[in-house]
Structure formats: structure tokens, C-alpha cells
Amino acid sequence: DTSNSEHVSEESDLSNSDFEHGDVVTTILDAFKIFFTNEMLELIVFHTNLYAKRYYDKKITPRQDSNNIRSDSHFWKSVDRIELESFIGLLIQSGVHRSNYE
């Protein structure tokens, strides 16, 4: 549990985040934003969508040429930053939460 008096010093902040020297980290989102800036998230979204489009174009095009009908489920739906943040949050939560069946 973090105290409201804890903060990240400018010297130790190598992430180029939006936080200023002396800002207080009071929420999990504040801590997350120290490591993942908006610019980083937008870059991850851009390259995720670029890779997926190239992947699907490469895999699906030969099928289309052989007169197979493609369904809409085979098309990539671009992700946005909100979806990426949600996915990362789920990964973090699943890493933190321990199940009795592990």
C-alpha cells in the first residue's frame, strides 16, 4: 500500500512520463502512467494495428484468390488506446490475483 506522501523524484524517473517532479502517486493509474506514457501507448496501438493488417493481408489474400468467400470475422478490427489500456490492465490483474487452483 502506498502512502500519499510517496512520490517519484525527477532523478529516478527515466520514463519521460507526464508526471512532474514532486507529483504524488495516489492511484494505480498514476503508477501505470509513470511507465506507460500516452505517446508510448499510441505507438504500441499503431504498430499493433500495422502488424495485424499486414498479417491478415498476407494470410487472407491467397484464400481470396482461390475464390473462397471471406467472412467479416477474418478482418482485423483496429484496436484503440482504451482497448490497449484495458488489455494491459487485465494482464496486470491476472498477474496479481492468485487463484486457489494454481
From TrEMBL:
Domain PiggyBac transposable element-derived protein: 30-99
Record InterPro entries: PGBD
Protein name: PiggyBac transposable element-derived protein domain-containing protein
PANTHER family linked: DUAL SPECIFICITY PHOSPHATASE 26 (PTHR46599:SF6), PIGGYBAC TRANSPOSABLE ELEMENT-DERIVED PROTEIN 4 (PTHR46599)
Pfam family, one: DDE_Tnp_1_7
Recorded superkingdom: Eukaryota
